[in-house]
Amino acid sequence: MKKLLCVVGIFLITSLSAQVNIAVMDFEGKNVSPADASALTDRLRAELFLTGKFVVLEREKMDAILKEQAFQLSGCTSDACAVEVGQLLSVEQMVAGSISKVGQTYSVTARLISVEKSNLLSVGKCDLKGDIGDVMTCLSGVAGQLANKQPVPHNEQASTDGLPEMVFIKGGTFQMGSNDGEDNERPVHTVTVSDFWMGKYEVTVAEFEKFIAETGYQTGADKSGGSLFLNGNTWEMKAGVNWRYDAQGNTRHSGELNHPVIHVSWNDAVAYCDWLSKTTGMKYRLPSEAEWEYAACSGGKNYKYSWGNLEPEGKRGGNIADESAKRIFSNCTIWEGYDDRYSFTAPVGSYEPNELGLYDMTGNVSEWCWDCYDNEYYNKSPQSDPQGPSFGSYRVLRGGSYDSRPTWVRCTRRRYTIPDGRPYDGGFRILRTE
């Protein structure tokens, strides 16, 4: 009996010692009341404790420590800020998150962050239709995901189900277009967009591979003679080059699955969105030009580039035509003195996000939009949620790419090609409305 009690005691001590000290910051509410966001945070605290993996710092004690340190949590939403809070609280890990609502659909995202290493450890998510009470019931699953998830590799998108991570964008009214750009960017006109979710990153090779594996879908490149690739100094069309390949015609290896997918047409991108909608029961599509520009400009601000109006510098920039591109494309016009380290595509999230938390809106790959292209559309565009002309021979791409000169990566610039075009520097980002 004594031996049994000893074994049980050792088991309990081992179990307790394996627990991790954490603190949970109040969820950021987006289109959700502060009271509901606070209640959800408290419920998640309880669910995290019940996993048996965490020792959760009580809200009252957390608030008292931060008050003593004169630290204001208001506006503290980034991982870096969460790490700073964790250091003040002397915990090993922090949980930060958000809850947003569009229509009748709630989206909860919780992020587990290492205080010591300042890196993202895991993500818990749930998306559902219903009321706030229904959301409470899904937090047990979120806590379980945080407790059991394997570490998130650097530069890889965090997602609990292999599907793209989304960012809630609060709609608004802004001035679309530019008087300083090309003719098709005029006139500047007032546009209002409704709330939506947008992909935090461009769709990656890994995410597109999941779609292909589950559907057996044949892309335009598979059916129509391949795609362009760079052979020395010449772009050539070659059968067999498809979404699995990079811009130089090399098959992507396992270390590049977090790069944005390229060699995909507008038709392919729409097929991906249709599959995602059917799989999840939610409404996914490509963004309209208006939604894309509003999001790229951090909510319709008067920015030339997604990072603002200043020169790019270090990670406050993007993957554009620069000194590294000059080493490959000897005749291209570059951003002199700037080196983003990639001549072709970069892993998604390699540079700082814009003010809405969206990555690579400027550069990396041009992104397909839903709209048909019309050079004169801005003269007749409706103000509320314009979706482009009802018909047309071309579709729009936005944002510029790794080989785009400075004037081509402005947020207002409009590029277009045929729907079956398969750009070697083009990919896409998704949008969800409910």
What does this structure look like?
The protein is α+β, with helices and mostly antiparallel strands. It has two domains: 2-152, ABC-type transport auxiliary lipoprotein component (Rossmann fold); 169-432, paralog of FGE (formylglycine-generating enzyme). Helix content is 26%, strand content 21%. The protein has ten helices and 18 strands. It has helices spanning 2-17, 34-50, 59-68, 79-89, 132-148, 205-215, 220-223, 266-280, 289-296, 323-326, and strands at 20-24, 28-30, 54-56, 93-102, 105-114, 120-129, 166-169, 172-176, 189-193, 196-199, 227-231, 234-238, 284-285, 366-372, 395-398, 415-417, 426-428, 431-432. The strands form five sheets. Strands 1, 2, 3, 4, 5 and 6 form a six-stranded mixed sheet that branches. The longest helix has 17 residues, at 34-50. Residues 1-17 and 150-160 have low confidence and may be disordered.
In total, how many beta strands?
18
Summing up helix and strand content along with how strands pair, one would put the structural category as alpha+beta
The CATH class designation of the largest domain is Alpha Beta
Order of helices and strands: HEEHEHHEEEHEEEEHHEEHEHHEEEEE
What profile does the largest beta sheet have?
A: 6 strands, mixed
Task: Note the gap between the termini.
Answer: 59 Å
Spatial extent as radius of gyration: 23 Å
β-sheet strand percentage: 15-25%
CATH topology of the largest domain: paralog of FGE (formylglycine-generating enzyme)
